[in-house]
Amino acid sequence: MNNEALIKTIRTIPDYPKPGILFYDVTTLLKDPEALHEVAERLYHLYKDKGITKVAGIESRGFILGGLLAERLGAGFVMVRKPGKLPAEVLEVSYEKEYGTDTIQMHKDAIGPDDVVLLHDDLLATGGTMKAACQMVQQMHPRQVYVNFVIELKALNGRKVFGDDVQLDTLLQL
Q1: Is beta strand 144-152 parallel, antiparallel or unpaired with respect to 22-25?
Q2: Which of 163, 87, 99 lies closest to 130, judged by CA?
Q3: Residue 169: its H or E element
Q4: What is the pTM of this model?
Q5: Residue 137: alpha-carbon gap to chain centroid
Q6: Which residues does residue 124 pair with via DSSP β-bridges, in sequence order?
Q7: Could you tell me the sign of the dihedral formed by the alpha carbons of 69, 129, 125, 8, in that order?
Q8: What is the mean pLDDT of residues 131-152?
Q9: What is the β-pairing status of strands 90-97 and 11-14?
């Protein structure tokens, strides 16, 4: 399945969650068995030789492919969640979004200094959530951090919020 065919599996919804926003809905990609398999294969081949020990998925769509990828890589899976969802002691980072402030959390014991971490989410827009997740993971001093998205909205320049010390990969660019 080529990029054009994968892009066709993504539903676009105008004016969601607010007027003027064009929402890219990956649930239609995920429900298509061939598209899901293709994306999982591509992600696996990108990272199979990187020594990934933990995949951290961003709530909630990042849990789906992040969990699948962790299993395929023989790595553990870590959840990056909204406040109040994790039962043990957490690290927390707050950040600015296009329309307000948000906060994410991760268990303090989720990542150690010997880990090689892949942070995964479905879509890179402005990069705020993933940048916050990356900062939180870097507080745990892992050996290496990789960042991955299925889709990158190039016009929003979200890639620019990440420094040169983070390898960022996307599968599809819109």
Answers
A1: unpaired
A2: 163
A3: strand 167-173
A4: 0.95
A5: 13
A6: 152
A7: positive
A8: 96
A9: unpaired
- CA 146 to CA 64: how far, in whole Å? 18
Distance, CA of 77 to CA of 115 (rounded, Å): 12
- 62-95: pLDDT as tens digits: 999 999 999 999 999 999 999 999 999 999 999 9
Cα–Cα distance for residue pair 45/58, rounded to 1 Å: 21
What is the pLDDT confidence band of residue 165, given thresholds at 50, 70 and 90?
A: confident
Q: Examine the residue annotation and report whether 159 is marked as an active-site residue of this protein.
A: no
User: What 3-state DSSP class applies to 152?
Assistant: strand
Q: How far is CA 85 from CA 68, 76, 82, in A?
A: 21, 19, 6
User: Which residue out of 38, 61, 81, 152 is catalytically annotated?
Assistant: 61
pLDDT (0 to 100) of residue 19: 92
Residue 98: active-site member: yes
Backbone angles phi, psi at 103, to 5 degrees: -140, 145
**Which of the residues 98, 143, 152, 159 is marked catalytic?**
98
β 90-97/167-173 pair status: unpaired
Tokens of 79: 């959840």
Number of residues written out for the chain: 174
Closest CA to 130 of 109, 150, 104: 104
